[in-house]
Design a protein that fits this description.
about 150 residues; alpha+beta; two-stranded antiparallel sheet; 6 helices
């Protein structure tokens, strides 16, 4: 069997797609940064949460900062690369609100500093137009791959 398509989405999911990882990022972006807060708010087993936090720190998505010397206690803060994932979280939340909570019974509403409810949208950085699937053209950069799969020799 050939290897799977080289893909930045797959690489990113290998890091943040593990169970609870995106929820850790949700919590630290909301301000819950201490281990006990994370356990309570996420509901993850302590050993699993410890492993996710270590992986996110090792990858440079979170930083671990000591806030107590006796006993040693730490909190977790997003790094600049971790903060770049916040729009992804907001987009996932908006999708869930539209498709899983269409009855209007949403668990949370995020307000932008303009005073309005945040409705995230993806726009092209150059032309500022909304991004729609039918406007996109993929150009595979990995040798031996086409848009539909491995190149046929």
């Amino acid at each position: 069997m050939k290897d799977a398509r080289p893909c930045s989405i797959a690489d990113t999911l290998a890091l943040v797609g593990e169970k609870y990882s995106l929820l850790v990022l949700r919590e630290v972006s909301l301000g819950a940064r201490r281990f006990d807060q994370l356990v309570r708010n996420i509901g993850a087993p302590r050993d699993v949460l410890t492993a996710r936090l270590k992986r996110l720190v090792d990858a440079g998505v979170l930083e671990k900062i000591e806030y107590s010397d006796r006993p040693k206690r730490y909190e977790y803060r997003p790094t600049s690369s971790g903060l770049e994932l916040v729009p992804v979280l907001m987009t996932l939340m908006a999708w869930g609100d539209r498709h899983l909570h269409a009855d209007g019974d949403r668990p949370m509403v995020i307000e932008h500093n303009c005073g309005n409810e945040l409705v995230p949208q993806v726009v092209c950085a150059e032309c500022r137009e909304d991004v729609h699937q039918h406007d996109l053209t993929a150009h595979p950069q990995a040798p031996g791959w086409t848009v539909t799969g491995p190149a046929v020799p």
